[in-house]
Amino acid sequence: SATMSQNSTETGGGTAQGAARTMGDRAYAEDVVDQRPSISRRVMPEYPNKARRMNMQGQVVVQLVVDVSGKPQQCTIYSSSPTGVFDEAALAAARRTRFLPGRVKGQPVNTIVLILYKFSLR
Fold first, then answer.
1. Among 31, 37, 93, 110, who pairs with 99 as Cys (CB 3.0-4.6 Å)?
2. pTM assigned to the model
3. How many other CB atoms are there within 10 angstroms of residue 22's CB atom?
4. Which residue(s) pair with 6 in the sheet?
């Protein structure tokens, strides 16, 4: 089975803050918005067949920008273990997930989010 959680503290706290600076004013870090983005349609990743056959488990953290309409943009691998095994499955799920956008002063804003996907065999 695969699970996901949206919680930047699981990946080391304000890790998305630096990324916000590199993107200029186009996206806010999760810890500076008045209301953080929340998941409105959760999409679970497919467990890769090769990993299942090899009894592999792991986790992937995907960094993305939730745009003002709640769609994920700029999905990238923030970290993964083991490297490369579950990356594509996590990215595919992240791209299909939908959100309620983050807000600043009541207005929707682009917000950087980290999502943790855990892949474990039952």
1. 37
2. 0.81
3. 8
4. 115
